[in-house]
Specification:
The complex is a heterodimer of chains A (596) and B (777). Chain A has 596 residues and is of the alpha+beta class. Chain A has 17 helices and eleven strands. Among the domains of chain A are: 133 residues, Orthogonal Bundle (Butyryl-Coa Dehydrogenase, subunit A, domain 1); 123 residues, Butyryl-CoA Dehydrogenase, subunit A, domain 2 (Beta Barrel), CATH 2.40.110.20; 147 residues. The longest helix of chain A is centred in the middle third of the chain and has 37 residues. Chain B is an alpha/beta fold. Chain B contains 32 helices and 23 strands. Classes of the chains: A alpha+beta (596), B alpha/beta (777). Chains A and B meet through helix 12 and helix 13 of A and helix 22 and helix 32 of B.
C-alpha cells in the first residue's frame, strides 16, 4: 500500500529561507500571515490530505467516475471528502474576504495544493478548477456577476470549470465555433460542443459554473473574436437558490490513462443562458488569467506527483531486502541488504529528491512573487514581480511536470516488478502524472511560449528579472570558499544559459524555426539553472543554520548533501543541452515530410 | 556660361525658400518683392521673409550665417541689383498678366545673356513668353522647385522652342552640382511630370477609399509600405502638403489639361474634405487634417477623420489581413479577395496606367517619369518600376479586368520589363520599344550601379565590401537600419587585411552607403538583450572591439574617407570622427547622442572630441576650455542639422568636404581618397594634458547647478558626471603627466561598463527602443 506524509519540515525551511520568514506578512493585506500562522494552517491542511484525501486515491483510481443518463458519479467517498474540505473553508483559503474567503496569501494555497496533489490528484481537480473560475470572474466579471456568483465559488457549494477545447481545436483556439447570441435582457444564448472538460459534470456540488469561450455574431475571425461567458448548470433564482436546469448537459465522459476519478466530460451547450465576462471579443485576455494561474497550478501538480513518488520509492528501497551491497554485507542482522545500499538505487532516489526539493523552492519563490505582484505597496516592485512570474510560468509548468513524471517512473523502477502491479500503487502515479505534461498547453507549447513570447518581449526585459539577481548572487558568492563546489558549476551553467539565450534571440529573430528547434532544450536548460540557483540558496541557509547551531542537524546536512548531488550529477546536463541547442534546426528540418 | 550670382523675385514661401537654398550653395542672391505700403522701409517684405526663414522649422538655411548671402530689396528701388546676376528666378503669384508685366520690367535691366526662369507649376511656357522680346525668349525657361526647396530633391526644368541650349545646360548644371537637385527635363505640358501624375494618384486614392468604404488608416496601410510611400501613405501625404493646396492645383489642371484626360473623369469634390478646408482643417499646418493629435485632457491621442461623417475618432493602426498575407508581393496584395485588395487593385491599375499613358507626352523617357515621382512625391519606386514589380503582362491583364485601356507603352512591352540589367548595366525600354542604357551624368557614381554590375569583394550579414574602381574599396553597411554590430567591425578588419599597406591592388578605403541614414549607431536592441541577460563580458567586447576597429582605421597605412548622408549618430558619428577625411552630403546630421540612452560615446568619441577641441585655434589656452567644449557637445547630445552646422560643432573639420548632390557624393569621396593615397602618411598620435579630479569637480559643480535649475535629471547627473570623469582624464590624472590615447580609451571603456550596469541606463535604453523617445529619468 502506498504511503504519504506531507513534507512540512521542508516547506517550512523553504518558506523561511527562500521566501524569507515574515516576508509575506510585510505585504499590505497579509499582515496576519505570520510564519507561525502559516505553519499552523499547513499542518491542518496536511492532516486533511493525509487522512481524508490520500485514502481515497487508489480506490478512486480503481473505481473511476461513472456516467449514466447524463449524470456523473464520482467514486465512493469523494462526495463526503469534498464536504469535509469545504466545510473547513479550504476552498476560500486565498480568496477575497469580501466574498467569504480567508484572504491568505496565494503562496500558502500553492503549498497546500502540492499536498493535495500528492494525496489525490484526481480530487484536486475539482477545487482547482473552481479556483480558476473564481480568478477569472473576480478579475473580469461585472459587479453584478461577482455579487451573484463569487460567494458560492468561495464557499465551495458551487463548482467551476473552464470550457475551451472543442472537437476540432485545442491549442489553436482561434478556430473556436461555439456561438453566443445576444438577448434583449443582456444575457446570451450559448450553443456548441466542448470536449475534455475537467469537472464538467459531477455530484460534488449543487451547481456548476462553466466559463465558456464562444463567438459573438459580429466577431472577427481568429483569437481576436473570442468572448468569455459564464454559463451555470442550473440558473439561480433571485434568492440565490438553485433554479431551473440550463441548456447545458454532459454527453459522455472519457476513459483515460490516468486521473480516473476526475470526470473529463463532453459538454453540450444548447441555447444555454450565459452572461458575458469582461469585454466582447476580449475573452482570450480573461482566459489567460485563468490559464496562467492554471499553468502554475499544473506545475505544482507535477511537484506533488514527484514528492509522493519519491516517498514511496524510498520506503520500498529501505524495506526490500535483496542481495548484498557491492562492497560486502552492510546489514549482517538481516537475511539480505535493503536495496537502498546500491549506488544506482541511490541515483534514482536522489534524482527524484533533488529535483523535487529544488522545484519546491522555486515554486515557493514564484508563488511569493505572485503575492508581491498583487499586493506590494510599490508599483515598480509589483510590476517587476509580475514580470518574474510571467517569465517563470512556462518553466514551472513544463519543468515541474516533467520532473513529476520522471520521479513517478523512478518510483516504479525502484519497485521492480511490483511497481508494475496496480495494487502496489505507484504505477498509478505514472499514469496520473502523464496528463500534467499535456494539459494547459503541452510542455512543447510551454517551451515555445518561453522562446517565442517571453524571451523577446520588450527586448528581453522579463529575462532581466531572472538573470540580474542570479548574476549578482553568483558574483557575490564566487569568492566564498565554503560555496566553491556549488557556485562554480552554477556559474558555468549560468554562463551557458546566457550564451544560449543570446544565440536563440539572435537566430530566432531571423528564423523562428531556429528558436522553435531549441525551445524544449532551452526550457530544460533554464529550469536546471533555476533549480541550481535554488540549491545554492538552500546550501547557504543550511550552512548558516548549522554554523549557528540552529535547526535539525540531520535535515540540514541532508540538504547540503542533496545539493551536492544536484550540482555534481544533475546540473552538468546543462552542458549537453547547450550543445544540442547550438546544433540548430537543421537536424530537425532537413528530413522531407514524406521520408517520415 | 556660368552662374555665380542669382536673384529671386517673390519672397513668399517658395521664393524665399529658393533664395535660402542659393545661399546654402554659397551663391549670393538678391531677393526682391514689391515695396511695402506702410512703414519707412520699402524693402520690409523681403527683409521680413529672411527673418521668417531664420525661424522656420525645418530650417531652410543650412547655417544661419547663410542669411548674410541674401540681399533683400524691392522691385521699384532695387531693380538695378539685377544687372549683376546670372540667373533670375521668378516666383510670384500664378497670374500670366502679372508675370508678363514683371518680365517686361526686368528685361531691360538684367545683364545681357542672363537666364530668367519661372517657378510656375501650372502656366505653360508658351503663354509666359508671349509678347516678350526675342532675347528674353532665348533666355527664358521654367524651373519648377518643390516645397520645401532645401529638402525636396526634384527640380523639373522645361525649355521652350526658343530657349538657348547653353542656358538650359547652365541652369541644369548649377541646379545639379550647386543646389544638389535631381534635375528632370520635362515637356511643356500641364503639371509637368510629378504633379500631373501625383494629383491624379491622390484623387484616385481618395475616391477609391470613399467608394470602397475604407478608413484613412486602411487606405494608408495599403498605399504606404506595400506601394512604397512608407512614412505617410496618401492621406498622410496630403496632410503634409496641405489639403487647401489640392483645389488650386486641381483648378489649374482642369483649365489646361486635354479634354479627354482621365483626370477630368476622376476629379470629384468630396463634401467632407471641402468642409475640412473651409473650417481650417488643412493638414499639419492647420488645425489638423485627415489625422490629428488631440491634446484634450492632457494626453496626446492620435485621431483620424471618418471619411463619411467628417467626425474625428481615435486612430487605430489597422492590421490588414491582405497586407500581412501578401508581404512584399504586390500582386498578392492586389489579388487579395477583400475590399483592401480591391482598393490596391483599383489604385494601382488607374494610377500606373495613367502614368504609362503619358510617355512621351510629358517626358521623352520613362526614366524621367520614375525619377520625378521618386524625388517629387517621395515614392520609393516610380510608376514604371512598380509596373515591373507586377510584371507588364500581368499589369495589362489587370487593366483589362478593371475596364481600363491598356496603355500603348505597356502593350508594346509585350511582357518584357521596363527595366533590365544587361552586362551589369541598367537598361530601360524606350518609346521605340528597344532597350537603351540608363546614362548617369559625369561625376555621378552610384553604389547601386556598382552593385548591379559586380559581386561584392566580400560580405557578411551586416556589411559588404565593393570594388569602386581605381583601387578603392568601399564598405557598405547592410544591417537593418545600418545598426552597427560585431559583423561590421569584422568587415573593417577584412578591409584592413585586403588593403594591407595600401601599395598593392588596393590604395584606399571609402565608407559609404545609399540608405536614408548613414547609420544611427550601435544595434541597441542587441545590446539591450545582452544587458538584460547580464552578458557583461560580451558588451565589453563589443566596446573594445569597436575601439580596436576604429583606431586601426585611423592609423591604417592607407587613407580612409567616409561619405555620409542623412543621420550619422552615436557609433555612426564616431566612425566619421576617426576617418582621415569626411566628404559629407550637405544633408548630413551628425551627433554624439549616447547620453540620451544613459551612455557615453565609447568607441573613441569622447577622446576624439577632446582632441578636436584642443586642436581648434579658437579654443582658449589652458587645460579646461577643450574639456568644457567637448563636455557641452556630448552632454547635451547635440545633433548638427546640416554638414555646415557639423563644422561649427567640430564634428567635421575645416578641411572636410561637403557635396550638395547626393548622387555625386561617392565620386567626390573616391576622388579625395585617391588624392590622399598619392602621398599618404597616417596621423600622429596625440597626448592629452588633463587636470584629473580638480577639473572634474569644476564640471560637477556646473552639473549640480543645472540639476538645481531642473535642467538635468538625476540620471543626467550620473551620466554626465561619468562623462566629466573621462574628459578630465580619470582619478589619477594631473596636468604634469600627459594622458595617452590608450589610457583615454580604457577610461571610456570602464565608464561605459559602469553605466550599463545602472538601472537608470537600462531604463533609458529600453524606453528608447520601445517608444523611440528618450526617457528623462
Amino acid at each position: 500500500m502506498p504511503i504519504y506524509k506531507a513534507p512540512l519540515e521542508d516547506v517550512r525551511f523553504v518558506l523561511d529561507e527562500i521566501v524569507g520568514a515574515g516576508k509575506l506578512a510585510e505585504l499590505p493585506g497579509y499582515e496576519d500571515a505570520t510564519p507561525d500562522l502559516i505553519a499552523q494552517v499547513l499542518e491542518e491542511g496536511a492532516k486533511l490530505c493525509e487522512e481524508v484525501l490520500f485514502p481515497l486515491n487508489q480506490s478512486g483510481d480503481g473505481e473511476g467516475c461513472t456516467f449514466e443518463n447524463g449524470v456523473v458519479r464520482t467514486p465512493k467517498g469523494f462526495k463526503e471528502a469534498y464536504g469535509t474540505y469545504i466545510e473547513a473553508g479550504w476552498q476560500g483559503l486565498s480568496c477575497d474576504p469580501a466574498y467569504g474567503g480567508q484572504g491568505l496569501p496565494k503562496l500558502v494555497n500553492t503549498m497546500l495544493e502540492e499536498f493535495i496533489c500528492s494525496a489525490n490528484l484526481s480530487f484536486g481537480m475539482y477545487p482547482g478548477l473552481s479556483l480558476g473560475a473564481y480568478n477569472a470572474l473576480s478579475t473580469y466579471g461585472s459587479e453584478a456577476l461577482k455579487q451573484r456568483f463569487l460567494g458560492r465559488l468561495v464557499d465551495g457549494t458551487w463548482a467551476g470549470t473552464m470550457c475551451l477545447t472543442e472537437p476540432h481545436c485545442g491549442t489553436d483556439l482561434g478556430l473556436i465555433r461555439t456561438k453566443a447570441v445576444p438577448q434583449e435582457d443582456g444575457s446570451h444564448r450559448i450553443t456548441g460542443t466542448k470536449i475534455f472538460i475537467s469537472a464538467g459534470e459531477h455530484d460534488l456540488t449543487e451547481n456548476i459554473l462553466h466559463l465558456v469561450l464562444a463567438r459573438l455574431p459580429d466577431a472577427p475571425a481568429g483569437t481576436r473574436g473570442i468572448s468569455l461567458f459564464l454559463v451555470p448548470k442550473f440558473l439561480p433564482n433571485e434568492d440565490g437558490t438553485v433554479g431551473p436546469r440550463n441548456g447545458v448537459a454532459c454527453g459522455s465522459i472519457e476513459h483515460k490513462m490516468g486521473i480516473k476519478a476526475s470526470a473529463t466530460c463532453v459538454m453540450n451547450f444548447e441555447d444555454a443562458t450565459g452572461w458575458l465576462v469582461g469585454e466582447p471579443h476580449k475573452g482570450m485576455r480573461a482566459m489567460f488569467v485563468m490559464m496562467n494561474a492554471a499553468r502554475l497550478a499544473v506545475g505544482i501538480q507535477g511537484l506533488g506527483m514527484a514528492e509522493v513518488s519519491y516517498q514511496n520509492a524510498v520506503a520500498y528501497a529501505r524495506e526490500r531486502l535483496q542481495g548484498r551491497s557491492l562492497k560486502g554485507t552492510a546489514h549482517p542482522d538481516k537475511p539480505a541488504d535493503p536495496i537502498i545500499v546500491h549506488p544506482d538505487v541511490r541515483r534514482n532516489l536522489l534524482t527524484a529528491r533533488a529535483y523535487t526539493e529544488g522545484a519546491r523552492a522555486l515554486g515557493a519563490l514564484v508563488g511569493y512573487k505572485l503575492d508581491v505582484a498583487e499586493k506590494h505597496a510599490d508599483e515598480k516592485t509589483r510590476k517587476e514581480a509580475d514580470e518574474f512570474v510571467q517569465l517563470m510560468t512556462p518553466i514551472v509548468k513544463a519543468l515541474f511536470t516533467d520532473i513529476g513524471f520522471e520521479s513517478a517512473n523512478i518510483a516504479v523502477q525502484v519497485h521492480g516488478g511490483h511497481g508494475f502491479i496496480w495494487e502496489t500503487g505507484v504505477e498509478q502515479y505514472v499514469r496520473d502524472a502523464r496528463i500534467c505534461q499535456i494539459y494547459e498547453g503541452t510542455n512543447g507549447i510551454q517551451a515555445l511560449d518561453l522562446v517565442g513570447r517571453k524571451l523577446p518581449q520588450d527586448m528581453g526585459r522579463l529575462l532581466r528579472r531572472f538573470f540580474h539577481p542570479v548574476g549578482v548572487e553568483i558574483e557575490a558568492d564566487m569568492e566564498k570558499e565554503e560555496l566553491g563546489e556549488f557556485v562554480l558549476p552554477l556559474a558555468k551553467a549560468f554562463a551557458k544559459l546566457q550564451q544560449a539565450t543570446a544565440v536563440i534571440a539572435q537566430k530566432g529573430l531571423k528564423d523562428p524555426e531556429e528558436a522553435g528547434a531549441a525551445a524544449t532544450d532551452y526550457l530544460r536548460l533554464f529550469g536546471l539553472v533555476a533549480l541550481g540557483w535554488m540549491w545554492l540558496r538552500m546550501v547557504k541557509a543550511a550552512q548558516a543554520k548549522l554554523a549557528a547551531g540552529e535547526g535539525n542537524t540531520a535535515f540540514l546536512e541532508a540538504k547540503i548533501r542533496t545539493a551536492r548531488f544536484y550540482t555534481a550529477k544533475l546540473l552538468p546536463q546543462t552542458n549537453a543541452l547547450f550543445i544540442t541547442i547550438m546544433a540548430g534546426s537543421k537536424p530537425l528540418m532537413e528530413m522531407e515530410e514524406a521520408a517520415f | 556660361m556660368q552662374i555665380k550670382r542669382a536673384a529671386v523675385i517673390g519672397s513668399g514661401v517658395m521664393g524665399s525658400g529658393i533664395a535660402a537654398h542659393f545661399a546654402n550653395a554659397g551663391i549670393p542672391v538678391v531677393l526682391l518683392d514689391i515695396p511695402a505700403k506702410e512703414g519707412d522701409d520699402r524693402s520690409a517684405i523681403a527683409k521680413g521673409a529672411i527673418q521668417r526663414l531664420l525661424k522656420t522649422d525645418p530650417a531652410p538655411f543650412m547655417h544661419p550665417k547663410n542669411a548674410k548671402l541674401v540681399t533683400p530689396g524691392n522691385l521699384e528701388d532695387d531693380l538695378a541689383l539685377l544687372a549683376d546676376v546670372d540667373w533670375i528666378v521668378e516666383a510670384i503669384v500664378e497670374n500670366p498678366a502679372v508675370k508678363a508685366d514683371l518680365y517686361r520690367r526686368i528685361d531691360p535691366v538684367r545683364k545681357q545673356g542672363s537666364v530668367v526662369s519661372s517657378n510656375t507649376s501650372t502656366i505653360p511656357l508658351g503663354v509666359l513668353v508671349e509678347g516678350q522680346s526675342d532675347a528674353f525668349k532665348r533666355d527664358f525657361l521654367i524651373t519648377h522647385f518643390f516645397n520645401p526647396p532645401r529638402y525636396m530633391r526634384l527640380l523639373e526644368i522645361v525649355g521652350g522652342e526658343a530657349t538657348r541650349s547653353d542656358a538650359l545646360a547652365a541652369v541644369a548644371d548649377v541646379c545639379d552640382r550647386a543646389l544638389g537637385k535631381g534635375v528632370v527635363r520635362c515637356k511643356d505640358t500641364p503639371g509637368f511630370i510629378a504633379n500631373r501624375i501625383g494629383v491624379y494618384w491622390i484623387q484616385t486614392a481618395i475616391n477609391a477609399a470613399v467608394d470602397l468604404g475604407l478608413t484613412v488608416e486602411e487606405a494608408d496601410a495599403i498605399v504606404g509600405r506595400p506601394m512604397g510611400i512608407p512614412k505617410t501613405g496618401v492621406f498622410g501625404l496630403v496632410d503634409l502638403v496641405g489639403l487647401d493646396l489640392m483645389p488650386h492645383i486641381a483648378k489649374s489642371l482642369l483649365a489646361t489639361l486635354p479634354d479627354n484626360d482621365p483626370y477630368r473623369a476622376a476629379f470629384r469634390e468630396h463634401p467632407v474634405i471641402t468642409r475640412m478646408i473651409a473650417e481650417g482643417y488643412t493638414g499639419r499646418k492647420g488645425k489638423g487634417g485627415f489625422y490629428r493629435l488631440n491634446r484634450d485632457g492632457g494626453a496626446k491621442v492620435k485621431e483620424a477623420i471618418d471619411l463619411s461623417t467628417g467626425v474625428y475618432r481615435r486612430s487605430d493602426k489597422p492590421k490588414l489581413e491582405s497586407v500581412s498575407a501578401a508581404g512584399r508581393d504586390l500582386r498578392a496584395l492586389a489579388d487579395f479577395p477583400d475590399k483592401t485588395g480591391q482598393y490596391a487593385r483599383r489604385v494601382l491599375a488607374r494610377t500606373l496606367s495613367y502614368a504609362a499613358s503619358l510617355v512621351p507626352e510629358i517626358a521623352d523617357s520613362i526614366v524621367a517619369v520614375d525619377e520625378g515621382m521618386r524625388l517629387g512625391y517621395n515614392w520609393k519606386q516610380g510608376p514604371f518600376e512598380l509596373i515591373d514589380r507586377l510584371g507588364t503582362a500581368w499589369f495589362a491583364d489587370l487593366c483589362r479586368s478593371e475596364g481600363i485601356p491598356v496603355p500603348p507603352l505597356v502593350e508594346q512591352a509585350a511582357g518584357r520589363p521596363f527595366y533590365r540589367v544587361e552586362d551589369g548595366k541598367l537598361q530601360h525600354l524606350t518609346t521605340a520599344g528597344l532597350y537603351d542604357t540608363v546614362v548617369r551624368p559625369d561625376g555621378v557614381l552610384l553604389l547601386s550601379d556598382i552593385k548591379r554590375a559586380s559581386k561584392p569583394v566580400w560580405k557578411n550579414g551586416s556589411a559588404s565590401l565593393w570594388d569602386i574602381g581605381d583601387g578603392v574599396l568601399c564598405v557598405e553597411f547592410t544591417s537593418k537600419m545600418n545598426a552597427l554590430d560585431g559583423d561590421i567591425m569584422a568587415a573593417y578588419g577584412k578591409a584592413m587585411k585586403l588593403i594591407g599597406d595600401g601599395k598593392g591592388d588596393w590604395k584606399a578605403l571609402v565608407i559609404h552607403n545609399e540608405s536614408d541614414n548613414f547609420s544611427v549607431g550601435a544595434n541597441l536592441g542587441l545590446a539591450l538583450f545582452a544587458l538584460n541577460v547580464g552578458l557583461w563580458p560580451q558588451i565589453e567586447e563589443l566596446v573594445e572591439g569597436g575601439q580596436r576597429a576604429y583606431r586601426a582605421l585611423k592609423y591604417a597605412p592607407f587613407p580612409v574617407v567616409s561619405a555620409p548622408s542623412g543621420m550619422a549618430l552615436g557609433g555612426g558619428c564616431e566612425i566619421l570622427l576617426h576617418s582621415d577625411h569626411v566628404q559629407a552630403h550637405a544633408e548630413t546630421y551628425m551627433g554624439l547622442v549616447e547620453v540620451g540612452v544613459g551612455l557615453i560615446p565609447g568607441w573613441g568619441g569622447c577622446t576624439e572630441m577632446l582632441a578636436r577641441h584642443a586642436a581648434n585655434p579658437r579654443t582658449p589656452k589652458g587645460p579646461m576650455p577643450p574639456i568644457a567644449g567637448a563636455f557641452e557637445t556630448i552632454s547635451l547630445a547635440k545633433v548638427a542639422k546640416s554638414a555646415a552646422e557639423a563644422k561649427d560643432l567640430l564634428y567635421l573639420r575645416p578641411g572636410d568636404g561637403i557635396t550638395m548632390n547626393r548622387d555625386r557624393l561617392l565620386a567626390d569621396a573616391k576622388a579625395k581618397a585617391l588624392e590622399l593615397a598619392a602621398n599618404y602618411t597616417p596621423p600622429e598620435k596625440v597626448t592629452y594634458t588633463l587636470p584629473g579630479p580638480n577639473g572634474r569637480a569644476a564640471l560637477e559643480l556646473f552639473l549640480e547647478g543645472f540639476a538645481l535649475q531642473g535642467k538635468a535629471t538625476p540620471h543626467d547627473v550620473v551620466v554626465c558626471g561619468k562623462l566629466a570623469e573621462i574628459l578630465t582624464g580619470g582619478p589619477k590624472a594631473d596636468v604634469t603627466q600627459p594622458v595617452t590615447e590608450n589610457q583615454m580609451l580604457a577610461l571610456e571603456r570602464r565608464v561605459f561598463m559602469e553605466l550599463v550596469r545602472t538601472e537608470g541606463t537600462i531604463d533609458r535604453v529600453e524606453h528608447m527602443l520601445t517608444t523611440g523617445k528618450p526617457l528623462r529619468n
